[in-house]
Specification:
InterPro entries: CTDL_fold, Sulfatase_Mod_Factor_Kinase, SUMF_dom, SUMF_sf. By secondary structure, this protein is of the alpha+beta class. The chain has helices at residues 26-47, 142-149, 177-191, 200-208, and strands at residues 58-72, 78-97, 100-107, 110-114, 126-130, 133-136, 195-196, 267-273, 297-300, 316-319, 328-329, 333-335. Helices cover 16% and strands 23% of the residues. The protein is globular and about 95 Å long.
Length: 339
């Protein structure tokens, strides 16, 4: 037996055996059984890995808005016409700290078309099959960033307040791809769930939410529905309000999956490396990597700074993984929980 000072509290009452004379009698056998039992229970506490509790899925309802047309007068001024319906989706809530939490929306498995004929970088248009996963209801906010940045470091230090356009409920920005990955790693370490950036295919599938139009809102975009550079129009759209900064998340209508701010707001990092086209791209929704880890990484969705063309569901751009910009943020994803 080791010295008493080396034993856990549960074994110290048995330390007298350290000097006991071995006797073949019933008391000795009983005491040895006790020692073995206590040791086994103690080892169980050291080696047993508890399965993370699966939080119950909840549901929420929301308005799904579609642009049905644009009416213009003889002077060329006009306004959009919309229709709406009620949508319903499942979500899970991850507690972060205090009153700060992170909501993830269930993205159902399915198949959709990816890309467009509008830009060579968006071709060839191709079908992708996406497994069920969960995606942040909103881009990561500054309050959520602060909560996770306070968690133990995994690989990189994180600035707790990197954003240039301040506001707890505004999307975090001025974060690099590397920092977004570190955020996911810290959140995974804390919650024991596999948080990650979405693949580019997952992002477009989630953005479209079953639509085939340039925007999940329809054939054009309007400043009443998204935050972008609305002095420039797309298609039959009309000029609108240029906010020239980020806004609180969730200010505009969701898509049919229940995701907010997929068009405009801030660009969102994806896990994939940049490729000039979709030639040889995977069709199973997986991350498309390159041989060089410093290659550009995908950003999607456009931002408050961009014209509507760059905010389309299919539009794709890239940045080097250590780039930071007041127009770039991200949202998290995770695979479907085990059942």
């Amino acid at each position: 037996m080791p010295w008493e000072s080396h034993l856990p509290e549960s074994l110290k009452p048995l330390v007298y055996r350290n000097a006991a004379r071995v006797r073949q009698d019933p008391d000795f056998d009983r005491d040895m059984d006790r020692v073995v039992g206590v040791i086994r229970r103690h080892l169980d506490t050291l080696t047993k890995v508890e399965e993370p509790l699966q939080e119950a899925a909840l549901t929420f309802e929301f308005d799904v808005v579609t642009i049905s047309g644009v009416e213009k007068d003889s002077a060329g001024k006009g306004e959009i016409k919309t229709r709406s319906r009620r949508g319903k989706a499942e979500y899970r809530r991850e507690k972060l700290s205090g009153s700060v939490s992170l909501d993830l929306v269930r993205i159902p498995q399915g198949e959709g078309m990816m890309g467009s004929e509008e830009d060579d970088r968006e071709q060839p248009v191709h079908a992708v099959k996406i497994a069920e996963f969960w995606m942040g209801k909103y881009p990561v906010t500054q309050a959520q960033w602060k909560a996770v940045a306070a968690l133990p470091k995994v690989q990189r230090d994180l600035d707790s307040d990197p954003s240039l356009l301040k506001g707890d409920d505004r999307p975090v920005e001025f974060v690099s791809w590397y920092n977004a990955v570190e955020f996911c790693q810290r959140l995974s370490q804390q919650t024991r769930q596999a948080y990650r950036l979405p693949s580019e295919a997952e992002w477009e599938y989630a953005c479209r939410a079953g639509t085939k139009t340039p925007f999940h809102f329809g054939e054009t975009l309007d400043s009443s529905l998204a935050n972008y550079h609305a002095e420039i129009t797309y298609g039959e759209g009309v000029k609108g309000e240029c906010r020239e900064q980020t806004t609180n998340v969730g200010l505009f209508s969701a898509n049919a999956f229940g995701l907010y701010d997929m068009h405009g707001g801030v660009w969102e990092w994806c896990a994939d490396c940049w490729h000039d086209s979709y030639r040889d791209a995977p069709t199973d929704g997986s991350v498309w990597l390159a041989n060089n880890s410093t290659d550009g990484r995908i950003v999607r969705g456009g931002s408050w700074f961009n014209n509507p063309r760059n905010c389309r569901s299919a539009f794709r751009d890239d940045g080097t993984p250590d780039d930071c910009s007041y127009a770039v943020g991200f949202r998290v994803s995770r695979s479907a929980p085990r059942t």
